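so the lab meeting is tmrw and i was supposed to have these ready like two days ago... anyway. pasting both below. for each one the top line is the aa sequence and the line under it is the structure tokens. i havent really looked at them closely yet so no promises
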Amino acid sequence: MGGGKKNPAYDKACAFAIRIVNAYRHLTEEHREYVMSKQLLKSGTLIGANLAEANGAISWAELSAKVSIPYKESQETKYWLWLLKETNYINDKAFDSLFNDLNELAAILYIILRKTRFRKNAANNSLPPSTT
């Protein structure tokens, strides 16, 4: 997850967080919606924040545990996006765009989880030096 290498999950999470901040700004300024949008802001930006923390993992088990958190946040974010769409705070086009980006990110996180779960069960649980 780290070591200066290109990190597609982290890059996508950061780009998604920027979109979520902009969506939050729009929802609060244009629609005066503060409750659901705040939840969306929280869960949608925590994906990247938790991935940043996962970059410091020192074992496959720790990496797996740390990546499970942003994966769960992605699932919560899907709920808030859906609820905002169903209550007509965001239109179908905005929902589809955000939801598609989120689905891609969640799929990447799920793949990482699957790989780390397999590796954490291996005999050597420490991460190779190039990933820390």
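ok protien two:
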Amino acid sequence: MVAGICAGAVAAAVLAAGTGGAHGYWMRTDARFAPPSALVPSAAVTYDMALVPAAAWIEVSQRTEESGATTVKLRVDGLKPGHEYGVHVHQKPCAADPAAAGGHYQHEKGTDEAHVNAANEVWLDFTADDHGAGAASARHDWGFRQGEASSVVIHDMPGTHGTRVACFTVPFGWTAGTS
């Protein structure tokens, strides 16, 4: 089974490489969730196995056009059926401590109502279906600044507040026009 896990990790890394340059940036990556203490570490970490069980699956893709407009898509499977989740792009990579992912990535930084909203952040809230699957997409006319978007955090409820129940480190990219 270890060979299967390693092969999956290699496939995910190849898909995550993305393309960039004058025509924008594109990438897609996926992983299976594992607890922080797992023998085989994963880029997808679950902190609450009742809501995001070990071996649940996540896929994130990004397409940034030459103009800088960015679309982020999320797909998940194996989560708690019928549950509503809040999902946001965060600033830092995942770690054993849920707080390590930092705050939400913001196009214009700030803490007031004008800054903490779906137009200034990437929100991917969804409700898991009867089988625990879900999907969401967000499109903005702006792109990520280099090195400032590093993960997708799943919260126990939609909106801006809630407990962090899982985290997925994602190789978000940028294009020269979005710095």
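from a quick look at the 2nd one: The longest strand covers residues 25-34. DSSP finds one helix and nine strands in the chain. will dig more after coffe
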